[in-house]
Known about the structure:
Layout: H1 7-20, E1 31-34, H2 38-47, E2 53-57, E3 67-69, E4 82-86, E5 97-104, E6 119-128, H3 136-141, H4 145-149
Antiparallel strand pairs: 1-4, 2-3, 2-4, 5-6
Amino acid sequence: xxxxxxxxxxxxxxxxxxxxxxxxxxxxxxxxxxxxxxxxxxxxxxxxxxxxxxxxxxxxxxxxxxxxxxxxxxxxxxxxxxxxxxxxxxxxxxxxxxxxxxxxxxxxxxxxxxxxxxxxxxxxxxxxxxxxxxxxxxxxxxxxxxxxxxxxxxxxxxxxxxxxxxxx
Length: 168
């Protein structure tokens, strides 16, 4: 189960699927699983100096430790599990707001495979994101849903909205 929540392992498996099915798996930005692919990140950063990278710690960091990188020194060492992606500055917005869509499915046994999913959760970031290019410092503030919504009094984690357990 822990592998399902690891961004680094997800990046690894998505890249493997993209290798075998390039047309079907071209829906995510260039990604690396760290520390395993750290040398590839440094090499990519050297060859594509104009591109911004986003480094995300894995497993439940809730937005803490995310870094926006424009330049990585070649001697820099990465020894923690993380994922790294090319940062997309022109993201899909809903009325000017950044969002993430997560679909959570709970299977109690293989007989549940024919049932529809339990819940889809759409959370909007509570800060408006202008389409103009932001500086790295400004970008750090709007990068994650958690970092921008937690301080707000209207933030909820969504757990109160889950339907009651169905014992069927």
